[in-house]
Specification:
- Two copies of one chain form a homodimer.
- By secondary structure, chain A is an alpha/beta fold.
- Chain A has one domain: TIM Barrel.
- The first copy, chain A, has 13 helices and seven strands.
- In chain A, strand 1, helix 1 and strand 2 form a beta-alpha-beta unit.
- The longest helix of chain A is centred in the C-terminal third of the chain and has 19 residues.
- The radius of gyration of chain A is 19 Å and the shape is globular.
Chain lengths: 342, 342
Amino acid sequence: MIASARIRGVLAPVVTPFKADLAPDSKRFIAHCKWLLSQNCGLAVFGTNSEANSLSMEERAMLLDELVAAGVDPSRMMPGTGCCSIMEAVKLTKQAVGNGCAGVLMLPPFYYKDVTEEGLYRYFSEVVQRVGDARLRIYLYHIPPVAVVGITTGLVERLLAAYPNAIAGMKDSSGDWNNTKTFLDAFAVRAAGPAPTTRAARTFDVFVGSDSFLLANMRNGGVGTISATANVNPAAIHKLYVACTEKSKFENRESNLEDPPSRKATARLDLEGLQAKLNVVRQVFSSRKFSSMIAALKQAIAIYAHDPAWRTVRPPLVELTTEQANTLASELKAIAFTMPGL
Amino acid sequence: MIASARIRGVLAPVVTPFKADLAPDSKRFIAHCKWLLSQNCGLAVFGTNSEANSLSMEERAMLLDELVAAGVDPSRMMPGTGCCSIMEAVKLTKQAVGNGCAGVLMLPPFYYKDVTEEGLYRYFSEVVQRVGDARLRIYLYHIPPVAVVGITTGLVERLLAAYPNAIAGMKDSSGDWNNTKTFLDAFAVRAAGPAPTTRAARTFDVFVGSDSFLLANMRNGGVGTISATANVNPAAIHKLYVACTEKSKFENRESNLEDPPSRKATARLDLEGLQAKLNVVRQVFSSRKFSSMIAALKQAIAIYAHDPAWRTVRPPLVELTTEQANTLASELKAIAFTMPGL
């Protein structure tokens, strides 16, 4: 990877394992991160699915330091650092940048509602200025079903104009493709091809918050997905991502490619088929019959790693009941789901 | 005040002054708290109107220590200590209890939405057990317009059954009188009269989150209000509170009163008139033409204390524009509003 290239592709909002006393379990956390990397999956640690907002500042700081100390590559990390308090967001972001993380995924301050675009602009502006580091790459995190406070095109426009280097992109977890398309059309239109390097600072990289939109995102100028199910199904999601980029390279017949795929190889790529397979897995995990997708993901890891400790979640979430766990197990078995190498 | 009596009456969610660099201004904060106490107003520091969720953990801890060190009476304090993280809520709550605060006002964990009653029960249960102090008095904070996650009667029932001493009451900021009435009817029905002492542990004290419901609350078994406008209009709100308790004492003709008010005195109490006066003030501050009520409250203090520094708010909030400030000033002048002794 070229040093200055942006992080792209498939990332997992890494689920955070807890011990019986609810303390973060760094040993299992590091092991899961290493497995995800082995599946070509980047690490959006401290995301919504990481229960990061149930972690204290100290716990997040400690886990990030432990990951780096364990040799996990920070250039493959995009930690969540958005907090309601500017001061806390700055502290976590500084730590991430100082550790060489590829970027940070930043929630808007989510307690106060009905805030103005001006207020949100000032929040992010304060963070960029107080971090004061040219290496900072912020990915704005739009997840209105949870944070309620969202990211608007007007906000992105103002932030990009003021901080074209620091504002690197966004994750759209609205679950609304029309919204993603609006941001893609407004900010991500550019020539297809490999991730730009020197011009990278001027592009806006859109990740979709669900792998179910990965194909649509890649066809419309997006750069990948940061998806909950990447915690359990990373290889298949990465396969679609690679197929999309290969197809795009071929169709654009770019002359500057070092490794142009043959017509024969790309013609065989059934993108819709790969997307459909991902959707089948996601459908199991996102079923309303489970208390939360987070609990279901952890339950699946517990099953496939033969490690019941993985079931634990922090309140206000609750782990799956035995009955729900059995249902999940049989549904995953029915679709021949596996987690190779876990 | 009897040592074990519960805190009741009028409390202000104390607005937090900031310096130009957005650091908390403890000098102005302490002065405002002392002024509020001089107006018979208790201190619900670190509430929604305090911009507490825009403060870091360290800033809240520091401000509380500074208040106590400045001689502000902790038995008149009910700091907000609810956080998304159990660990942080425990830390702040321990500090408050250790400092002798009358109680803590606790938001539910507000990031994850659609959580179950079981999950919220586990959250509060963990906090009570981890704080592990018989002096702990929790007031559950129901503010669905902001936190979205709310407090249900089912949750209160379970918590009261498990922790009858620690679960002391609630603040209802739903803005929906029917909701307050539901909680009053379910948990607050008891003989009128002075605050119970030995039996105090078994009662559930309902504060309304707006002084506009104070009269209704007092007539239906409530114990007071924790209201934003108490920051600027504490004496008038306290006057209604006292009038309600006097009237209640008289009407119940309790034989054990040491100071029964005369029929003549209480007959003159025009409770509706006092409530109507409060509503006029509140209407000015809650007008949608201001960016937020918090900014309007701070602007009013800036005006009446001749101290423009009070205007500052932290992003994502924005201070009033000059035009809005002028409008506020003239509207307050029109209703002959004053802040005596500020």
